C-alpha cells in the first residue's frame, strides 16, 4: 500500500527535532529522520547559502492535508519547504506506517 514521504527543511536542529517529535507524538507521522544539509536558494532578491536541517517523515496517504497544516502551524519559516512524494516499501514497513498513524490511536484509543 503506498504511503507518503514528506521532506521538510528547518533553520536549525532544535526546530527540526521539536516539530518532528510533535508530528510523531500526534501520530501524523510514523517516524522522522533528521539530518543537517547545506542549502543555496533565492530569498529576498539574493542568493543565500546556509546550513539547514531536514526531516523526512513517513505517513499514510489520508493524512496528507492534516500533516501539511500541522507543519505550517509549527514551522518558523514564512514559506517552509514541504515536499511530498508517494512511495512504496516492503510490506512489513508499509503495515507499520499504517498501524502507527491509525485514527484510533490518534484520537487517544488503545495503544
Q: Any overview of this molecule?
A:
With 111 residues, the chain is of the alpha+beta class. The protein has one domain: Alpha-Beta Plaits (2-Layer Sandwich). It contains four helices and four strands, in the order E-H-E-E-H-E-H-H. It has helices spanning 13-25, 64-74, 91-100, 103-106; strands spanning 3-10, 31-43, 46-59, 82-87. The chain has a four-stranded antiparallel β-sheet with strand order 2-3-1-4, covered by helices on one side. The model has no long low-confidence stretch (mean pLDDT 93).
**Would you tell me the structural class of the helices and strands?**
alpha+beta
Low-confidence stretches: none
Total of domains: 1
Q: Major sheet, described briefly?
A: 4 strands, antiparallel
The CATH class designation is Alpha Beta
Quick gist of this model?
With 111 residues, the chain is of the alpha+beta class. It has helices spanning 13-25, 64-74, 91-100, 103-106; strands at residues 3-10, 31-43, 46-59, 82-87.
Main traits of this protein?
111 residues; alpha+beta; Alpha-Beta Plaits; four-stranded antiparallel sheet; 4 strands; 37% strand; elongated
Amino acid at each position: 500500500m503506498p504511503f507518503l514521504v514528506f521532506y521538510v527543511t528547518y533553520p536549525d536542529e532544535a526546530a527540526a527535532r521539536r516539530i518532528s517529535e510533535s508530528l510523531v507524538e500526534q501520530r501524523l507521522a510514523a517516524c522522522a529522520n533528521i539530518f543537517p544539509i547545506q542549502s543555496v536558494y533565492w530569498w529576498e532578491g539574493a542568493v543565500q547559502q546556509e546550513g539547514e536541517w531536514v526531516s523526512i517523515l513517513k505517513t499514510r496517504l489520508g493524512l496528507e492535508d492534516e500533516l501539511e497544516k500541522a507543519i505550517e502551524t509549527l514551522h518558523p519559516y514564512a514559506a517552509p519547504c514541504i515536499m511530498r512524494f508517494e512511495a512504496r516499501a516492503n510490506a512489513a514497513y508499509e503495515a507499520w506506517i499504517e498501524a502507527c498513524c491509525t485514527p484510533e490511536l490518534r484520537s487517544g484509543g488503545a495503544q
